[in-house]
């Protein structure tokens, strides 16, 4: 599989390229946003480069990584995995809104990165279908929509529905649900949720988190959707469709 690595740090790029090469990837390296955009543009002969995945570092010297993502998304349906040091849920949602397929936070485990690369490549229709363009790609209507049984969480529009009926959530309720829904079954520690959703430390938040969880359970009319893991935090239990 060909992979486009967008990374301005040559040391990071060299180390990562070596690992990726050992796992069978042919790596093309772009050092900035401009090189990344050039790399996905059709050639003078009209050929489109056929990358299986684009790994996009958000901290680039010449352009904002989010803007590069948005431009790349207009040019190709190749899956984009954003790589960044910013771990807060708002940054992740912003990235997904711009068309990123996944989001990896530095420092990452290379085993996890490889698993995510394979996962997005599996979900992608593949380079052969790329000529159809973003608008015609299958599944594009579902981009950024998390489905949990009857619950649909639309990340780009921040809309939530149950059985197709819209549910009005506050901003923090949505952020909390979006965070848990991105990894169903995974236990999120209370400190982690507070830090990502409220962007503050644990002190002084009182029962804010409990109140929001209770409100979500009630508004979604699914008391069992968010499970309390006593002494640890919460996890989202994906209901059967
Ligand atoms: Ca960087």
Short description:
The protein is of the alpha/beta class and 241 residues long.
Polypeptide structure, described:
Residues 143-238 bind DNA. This is Sensory transduction protein RegX3. Keywords: DNA-binding, Phosphoprotein, Transcription, Transcription regulation, Two-component regulatory system. Pfam families: Response_reg (PF00072), Trans_reg_C (PF00486). Residues 143-238 form the OmpR/PhoB-type domain. Helices cover 37% and strands 20% of the residues. The chain is an alpha/beta fold and 241 residues long. The protein folds into 2 domains: 2-123, Rossmann fold, CATH 3.40.50; 140-236, Winged helix-like DNA-binding domain superfamily/Winged helix DNA-binding domain (Arc Repressor Mutant, subunit A, Orthogonal Bundle), CATH 1.10.10.10. The strands form 3 sheets. It has a 5-stranded parallel β-sheet with strand order 2-1-3-4-5, with helices on both faces. The chain has a 4-stranded antiparallel β-sheet with strand order 6-7-8-9, covered by helices on one side. A 3-stranded antiparallel β-sheet has the order 10-12-11. Helix 1 (10-22) links the parallel strand 1 (2-6) and strand 2. Helix 7 (171-181) packs across helix 9 (208-219). The radius of gyration is 19 Å and the shape is elongated. The two termini are 34 Å apart. The model is unreliable at 128-141 (pLDDT under 50). The protein binds calcium ion (CA). Calcium ion (CA) binds at residues 8-9, 57, 59. Calcium ion binds next to loops.
């Amino acid at each position: 599989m060909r992979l486009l690595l967008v990374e301005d740090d040559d040391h990071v790029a060299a180390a990562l390229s070596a690992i990726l090469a050992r796992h069978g990837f042919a790596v093309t390296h772009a050092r900035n946003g401009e090189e990344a955009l050039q790399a996905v543009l059709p050639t003078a002969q009209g050929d489109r480069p056929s990358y299986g995945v684009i790994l996009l570092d958000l901290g680039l010297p010449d352009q904002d990584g989010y803007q590069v993502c948005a431009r790349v998304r207009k040019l190709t349906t190749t899956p984009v995995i954003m790589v960044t040091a910013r771990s807060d849920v708002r940054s992740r949602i912003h990235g997904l809104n711009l068309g990123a397929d996944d989001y990896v936070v530095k420092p990452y485990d290379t085993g996890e990165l490889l698993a995510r690369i394979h996962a997005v490549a599996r979900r992608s229709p593949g380079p052969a279908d790329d000529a159809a363009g973003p608008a015609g790609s299958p599944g594009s209507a579902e981009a950024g929509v998390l489905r949990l049984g009857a619950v649909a969480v639309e990340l780009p529009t921040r809309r939530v529905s149950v059985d197709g009926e819209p549910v009005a959530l506050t901003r923090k309720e949505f952020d909390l649900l979006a965070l848990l829904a991105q990894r169903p079954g995974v236990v999120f520690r209370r400190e982690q949720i507070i830090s990502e959703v409220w962007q503050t430390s644990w002190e002084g938040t009182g029962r804010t988190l409990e109140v929001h969880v209770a409100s979500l359970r009630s508004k979604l009319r699914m008391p069992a959707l968010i499970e309390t893991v006593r002494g640890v935090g919460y996890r989202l239990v994906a209901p059967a469709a």
